[in-house]
Structure prediction request, 1230 residues.
Amino acid sequence: MGNYFSFPDLLIWLPLVAGIICFLCRKEQSAKTISILASLLVLGVSIASLFYTNDKKYLHFNNVNYIWLKYIGANYFIGIDGTGRLLTLLTAIGFPLVLMSASRTKYVSAPSFYGLLLLTQAGLMGVFCSLDALSFYFFWELALIPVYFLASRWGGEKRIQATFKFFVYTFTGSLLMLIGIIYVYLQTGSRTFEDGTVVAHSFSLSSFYNAALSSKEQFGLFWLFFIAFAVKMPVFPFHTWQPDAYDQSPTPVTMVLSGIMVKMGLFGAIRWLIPMFPAATLRFNEVVIILCMIGIVYASCLAMVQDNLKKLVAYSSIAHIGLMCAALFTLNPVGIQGTMIQLFHHGINIIGMWVVLNMIERQTGIKQISQLGGLAQKAPKLTILFVIVALANIALPLTNAFTGELLMFTGLFQYNHWYAAIAGIGIILSAVYTLNMIQKVFYGEWKPVSNFFPDLSITEKLVLVIIVALVFVFGVYPQPLIDLTKESVNQLLMRLK
Amino acid sequence: MNMVWLIPILPLIGFLINGLGRNSLPKAVSGFIGSITVLASFVLSLLVFMQVKAGNFHQTLHYFDFIRLESFTIPFNFTIDALSSLFLLIITGVGFLIHVYSTAYMHEEDGKDYAKYFAYLNLFVFSMLLLVMGGNFVVMFIGWEGVGLCSYLLIGYWYKNEAYTDAAKKAFIMNRIGDLGFLLAVFWLISKLGTVQYDEVFNAANLAKLTATDITGITLLLFVGATGKSAQIPLYTWLPDAMAGPTPVSALIHAATMVTAGIYMIARSNALFSLAPITQSVITVIGLATALLAATIALRQYDIKKVLAYSTVSQLGFMFLALGTGNYVAAVFHVLTHAFFKALMFLGSGSVIHAMGGEQDIRNMGGLHKHMKITSITFLIGCLAISGIPGLSGFFSKDEILAGTFAHSPLLYGIALFTALLTAFYMFRLYILTFSGTFRGTHEQEHHLHESPNAMTIPLIILAILSVIGGYIGVPEALGGHHELAAFLSPVVKSTTHHLSHNTEYILMAVSTLLVIVSIFIAVFRFRRYSTEQNNVFTKWLENKWYIDELYDAIIVKPIRGFSNFLNQFVEKRIIDDAVNGVGRAVNYGSRQLRWLQSGQVGAYVLLMVIGMLLLFIIQLFL
Amino acid sequence: MDIKAYIILSLTLFTIGVIGVLVRRNAIIIFMCVELMLNAVNLLLVAFSKMHAMSPAAKALPTFASDAQIFVFFIMVVAAAEVSVGLAIIVMMYRNIHSVDINFLNRLKN
Prediction:
């Protein structure tokens, strides 16, 4: 049982309540203020939780365990360990940035927009904190549904098809996961509650870990879960929903999608997939790595020939996530450590990219690279900050992503040096399309139809400066994040023995 | 010694001040700040150098742990020894002169861009200093990519011009290809030794842990990185295009410092390379081939900077030739002398371009000697130095390289000697066409001709003096000297060339000097009275750089693009997307068919009821 | 009599009833066929009841195997009820579409 007041609780319920309040707002301005304040409050809570650490009880730290559906053994059981803390921190940092950068655009019925975003945050926090399979699933879906509404209501012209595909695809994956969860649930042992009732099975994390699963069962379940996570991340070939979804969604939603929601997939693999099915993981990790490698090269190639800015960044995101997933499945301590810290870094960097793209799209309304050009002449500050963020995305040394990529590649190399070489092609290609994008959009002669393009506003400058600061701080001194997630890495590896 | 960390930090501060304050700082202030930080670093480097020289000093300064895992740690530390302190001097010294030169050269830029220029230049110095001061391969790599970035920013400095930004992009990408090799080598080292620290990697015990395959692989991969950064075959085509950047940038980055990073890296790792004979042969061959190729192209270039660019590629080839033959000290020596005379000549060309109002084609120049005496004389000194005329710095370093090559293989020596002759020839072609004869430009240009301001000529003079006296630190024993440079570097850099007898050395020196002088005379006579040069098939090839760029475009760029397009159109759109959409369409089709059941006809419903009952009946009976 | 004859007769009547329901368009005729089916079943029930009553085991118990005959009464009652409701529906149908052709009843479509 937990204390009456605990950090994970706050992290989930604050945004939830704030979101509901937002819905009730009439004016756009009050919704904006409430949402930004709430998200900053969540950030404060998250940072505070970092200090109240207790390294020994890393897994069930500060947990809360309320009886929810007693007779089937599902609890509202949340707690955060190293990885969870990292990802909740990312969510807590990401959302104020997203909300601040969204606040410049005028949205129809804005209160619901901001309310839905906050609901998404609540769902995401829940996913990262859940220590009970049913609440994990619950929050997983809870994060998905507001995104669907956000995209279908405020998106681009082809939003209905794109969001429909996105929703059905993800949902199918989640259903497969649900089947898997129920199956594992039926294999778990019994569990006694405090008041003496005994239930035959339980959904909690520890009983899932200890469920006796034969190898054959593990193999099948591994794929059920993996497909769900693979759709979310996305991993080739389950990625086709992503470029359209990113393209058609309003950019703040894309920030959330690519910055944080994809981490749900990786987190699911770290917290649920690999520890629960060690035998299957050892058997199939090569397959997963190969899929990811194909994804890296494939997505990088596709990114090179995209004319649509948003799709270009979408494909580059697939490539980055592919690398993270591959490094994770090398089951190599260095590689897994790299993936863990890269979860944070990639989130920050990609949000930075989308902030800039949001600005470009809002001012010029153009998404096609072929119609853009010479933005540096009118917006030099934006150019410089964007170049820094773009270079962070391609993992230039002294940026945060370099530290993650260094570790991931070392892990991948130790697993199989040819894979590292092939994935390295991704490094080169990423430089190609990123520099191409910078050159075509910012340098050269002014191309867009209208001549109006104000440089950064205060809010946007603030957002980008914060991101750039994070890029450099963690680029020079990444050790805190490594220390934060070290235990989780060890715990994960121990499960595999 | 505890101020060592200031050496890179000062230029970094200069970068921040100029970068953040670029909208408000007046030009004089930006230029001053940019230059003074580098000067301060130079003074500190001098102090460090003297300490190293006096005490035969060798220390690693640890600052913090960059990455600390259970299996290995990558600390962030600096190593101060003979090699790094020497490079520190080169970078900050020549860097300072170029900063001063830039204050006058970039004078026409408006305040914002002026400050941006100095900011980038300071950032470059910072990165380069990190590179040479790093105590392990990762810190070196941080500096390595940092200089690549600054190179990209500075080549594309005039960003409105698409050709320039294209050149910048090309430079960065080719660097990145090399960087992949470097990184793979780093990963290999981590996997095998669990460390990237220099003193740990080059420790004999650790080296013994590596198998021959390991060593060959690691060194080859490191060399791939070097080919990217130092413009060797096959990754050299970015350097001539990089001439799109401002001339002082070409002088600093693409002549004196960044391109020498590869040589520094290999010299630093000489313990490793000496154990890898296969790699050394590869380096020798590529170095020599690059030297020859670039020299031939330089024969027919008409842009003053392009000639110098190809000359740089060629000289870098010489340096790699030295490295390949185990003559590490000679390579470092040549880096030093080359920094002097090449920077001198680039700055001189900048002076010429400045006087000619932006003109860079030497066919439109001529007779500039009367108008720009200082530039002309210093440039001449540079040409003499690069040709290897005895008494000047280039003679000592180049001859040492040639001697080392001869010890390795007389055939290679022959080719190298031939390349040296070509070097003399094209350099003097350049000199004659630019500075002597009659002026071939327009009238307005002729009126505009003037000597450059002091801020530009004084660095020229200083560099010229250095080009003359710089070689005396490496006088070989054959001529009575002690080769102080070799002695100074010996704790860190151990050459493995065979020693030649003094007589052989004399003969080699005499032969090369004689042939070089002949080559110069041929050039002078050929180009004295200039008329258009003849063009035949062969020279067309040279003029078009052996069509290598076009080759790369055809076999690499276009296929990759085509492949990506194929993936996009065919695989992504048709196969995968259609598969997914196909599922949707199948469901749609199925449901439409099923919809016929809901015809609303009562009779149909009854029929279905009957059929259903029959089915149940049958199932009941038989199952 | 041989039980087989009753079975064949009952089956025949039933089949005719089924086919009639499926094929005919007039609602009233369909009703008649439904009645036919019901009565065919009745016939079969009675026949079997009699068959069992004539077996040796029935000597002891006069009401042996009379369940089926009771059941026949149930069926008749239900049939009567159903006919009354059904005819009422047909009358309403006629009032709306002025025909008893079932093909006109397709409002359930879509």
Remarks:
- The longest strand of chain A covers residues 64-69.
- Chain A has 19 helices and four strands.
